[in-house]
Amino acid sequence: MAATESPISMIQVGQLAAVRISAADGAQATVALFGAHLLSWKTADGRERIFCSARSALDGSKAIRGGMPVIFPQFNQRGDGPRHGFARLSTWRLIGDGIGSDGAYAEFGLAPGDVPAALAQAWPHIFQLRLRFTLQGGQLDIEFNVRNSGTAPFPFGVALHTYYDVGQLDAARVDGLQRMRYTDPAPASAVQDAAALTFTEKLDRIYQAPAELTLHTADAALRLQQQGYNEWVVWNPGAEDAAALADLEDDEYLRFVCIEPARVDQQLLDAGAEWTGRHSIRC
Ligand code: TA6
Predict the structure, then answer these.
(1) pLDDT in tens, 112-132
(2) Residue whose CA is closest, atom 9 of ligand 1?
(3) Ligand 1, atom nearest to 241 Cα
(4) How far is the CA of 76 from the centre of ligand 1 (A)?
(5) CA angle at residue 171 from 251 to 53, to 5 degrees?
(6) Domains in the chain and their CATH numbers?
(7) Which residue blocks in the chain are alpha helix, DSSP H?
(8) How much is the pTM?
(9) 181-183/154-160 β-pairing
(10) For 268, how many CA atoms within 13 A lie in the half-sphere containing its CB?
(11) Which residues have CB under 6 Å of ligand 1?
(12) Strand partners, 189
């Protein structure tokens, strides 16, 4: 691909407009403008690394089930707005693309005018978000930036709620969490004894984060790194909760694990200040 050529093309997924980012070596990602939501990431060998439910809405009527939902400005119910925030329910703008030394990239932006008024009511602040996906070979980098463009501090939480396609859940394990403290939704905290985290039943944990961990799938190892965030959230709904989710096939929980760099509690960002979280996934 010539250096001047754009790495992106516009496509449609379901009823959603999406951006396909193609690196020169064959790596490819698809990002819906609705939510700036990563729907697919194929490493240069052509393998899909991301899970997206066959039953997901793809029409903007509700959040996409799978991929990489962008959680902002609140994690789950830790705020007064919609669960997991409005970013995954708003249509972002494509604000840039190109090819750099780290690979092909596309960048998306969200500002108050892009957010449906009813969703923004509980969090009426002046902000700018930028989200950049950069890919090449077996690596995907995601940079999230929030700027407070208003005149008063505001609180925010953030997470990249990534659904990894693990092939078979019983083959998945996560290394790097031994001796790490975690909470599940119940506030009590515990320390992980096991060297590896495996998935035998519903699991929903928030770990005080080491900077790096490794997800082993049926046939690959993915090194996950984060910078700027505070936690890793690890989630699989298990059989019972999966069956209660209308936008997930009953047996699809057997194919994915969510691992999310996160800042689960809302923290203040000063007027005029910005915050950047970096996440990199290497296969
Ligand atoms: O990140 C884990 C979590 O907060 C879980 O508690 C779980 O319910 C999940 O997110 C999915 O949330 P959603 O709103 O997408 O159904």
Answers:
(1) 999 999 999 999 999 999 999
(2) 235
(3) 8
(4) 7
(5) 30
(6) 8-282 (2.70.98.10)
(7) 117-120, 238-244
(8) 0.96
(9) unpaired
(10) 5
(11) 63, 76, 83-84, 161, 204, 233, 235, 258, 260
(12) 183
